[in-house]
Amino acid sequence: MKSLFVIFLSAICNLAFSQAWQQLMVNTSSNLHSVFFLDADTGYTVGQNGVIFKTTDGGANWDGQTSGVSSQLNAVYFVDALTGFAVGDDGVILNTQDGGANWSTQLSGTTLELLSVYFVDSSNGYIGKRATGAEPSSILKTTNGGTTWTPISTGYVTDLYSIFFTSTNVGFGCGETPMSLNTYLLNTNDGGANWSNQNSNTTNIMNSIFFPTALTGYACGFGSTFIKTIDGGTNWVATVLPVNGTYMSTFFTSEQTGFIVGAGVGNYPVIMKTTDGGANWVEPSESFVGTLNSVHFPDAQTGYACGTVGLMIKTNNGGLTHIENMNESSPGFKLHQNFPNPFTAETTIHFQLSENSDVELKLYDVNGREVKTLISEKLITGEYSIHFSAKDELVSGVYYYKLILNSESDGKYYTGVRKMIYQQ
After folding, report:
1. All domains of the chain, ordered by start, with CATH?
2. Is pTM, for the whole model, over 0.90?
């Protein structure tokens, strides 16, 4: 019986440190700013120094393509398997009609940075750009598949970091007023002819916007801020995300299930998942070098995210996290993200028990070595907060805390893991 217990506990530990996301190898040291996949296998990424890479085998191999420019490329979008666009600094618009084998430049009529690109269909597309007092237009629009691009005045001098359309006429854009750091959330109901600024209920700048349905939309940005609408943008509700940082990109595979990526305080990569429309977020336990700029899912299970210094990561299981493993199989136990996170001196870990249980709460370093046992005792049903001081205990870095429960009702073991960042 003792040997069976050891084997079972070992299986739990292996599960806790298994990977939801794996790093892929892209042969570049340039920062990657945008990723777009047509299906689980075929995708593109663009970035610094005009780099464009393509994969046709799910990211196992990436082939560099000739862009013909050295300007930073900020966004990439494909209308179909052959037709794609990449936009970037110096007013650069690139177009391919043969799946990336050849790229040609299109006239943008500006030398300002082009920040985002979105196509409603093969003919109608939009580019978000930087704006100045001399050049106040925030958007370029095409109605002929990119043959020509026309500047559109939104009525606001706004840098548009992200554009999303839910139909031919209804679209949204988010960004900021140059230099003044005022946030804008723009909406059009007539295909871009007229725009209004919506109340986002936050003063923090939004970097990315996504609508999985016509009524439900999400945006993320600075100040660990996440906003949501369920009425097509008429009202937005702002919340603070559990991990402090700047969030650069969001993508939802359904109305309730989505992802956000960005940079935590101290410039470490953050990727989080929600399965309840943003009410709760969980973070995988993986640790990568760099920060993340863009995330894209061609289907519910397969996702990619790219970032600084050629960072590219992939999931094949819908970004399944270990907290999900615990919550889906356990009878009501819940482990929360520590707060604050990152922390410099002290932090608090909060968890809930739905029944009496033998409880262990342990701390591990990034290599999975046990550092400290915070709790090892029988606890009754209720909510618990553990205050932990890292002074003289830890060195700066990434750590994981794991809750192991032995349920009194069924005798089974349950486990959950979350990541914490300590900065001296």
Report:
1. 22-320 (2.130.10.10), 325-422 (2.60.40.1220)
2. no
